[in-house]
Prior knowledge:
By secondary structure, the protein is an alpha+beta fold. About 30% of the residues lie in helices and about 45% in strands.
Amino acid sequence: MEIEAKFRVADPRIFTQLLSLSTLGCAILIPHAAPEQQHTIYFDTPDEALRARRASLRVRVVAGRRIATVKRSHGAVGGLHVRDEWETPIHAGVHPRHWPPSEARQRALVVVGQKPLVARVSVYTRRHCIDVHLEGWPVAELCLDEGYIEAGGRIVGFRELEIELREEGTLTDLDVLCAALTRRFSLESEPRGKRTRGLALLDAISATSRAQPEAVEIALSARSA
C-alpha cells in the first residue's frame, strides 16, 4: 500500500528552501547523497483497460535499473493519495509476460492479458530524496521533484513535493509532517499524479480533434447562408 501526500511548489525559491531543510517540526531530515535522474513511461492497452480500472503500469529507469510498477488507485482526497502498489525489477521488454515471476506480473496480466501495450505518458524527473525520522524511527520519505511530463507531443513542467509513508509510519505521522510543512511554506495540495496530468494532455488533444470537424461544418454553413 502506497500512502503519500503531494504538494505543488510553485515558487522556485521555496523549492530551494525545502532542499536545505534539516528539521521539520520534531522530525530530523537526512538527505540522500545525490539526486536521482528518472525516466518513467506509463503504458496502457489500446482500449485503455488499465485506466478503466483506475490502475496504472509504468516502467522507470533509474541509474541503469529498470523497475516495473503496477498501481491501483483508491482515490485522492486533496493531496492525499492511497494506492495498492506492486513492483519488480525487469530486464527485457515492457509487457508483463516478459517480467520475472512476481505479484506485479500476476496483477498486470489479470488486466492486460495478451493485449499489446502502448506508451501513453513520459515523465522526466530530477528527484531529491530525504529520509524523515521521528523519535529515531524512519517514518517517511520526502521527495522533491522537478521536471516535465510529455504526452501526445505536449509538455508541461512541474515542481512538487511528496511525502510517502514507510511501514514504520502512521497516518498521524503524515498529518504532523504535512501540518509542519504548510505552517512554514506556501504550498498547494496536488490532487493529481503525474500520469493523470499526462493523460489530461492527451484528453485535451482528443477534445480539440473532435471539435475541429464541427468547427469546419459551422464555418461552411455560415459561408453558404
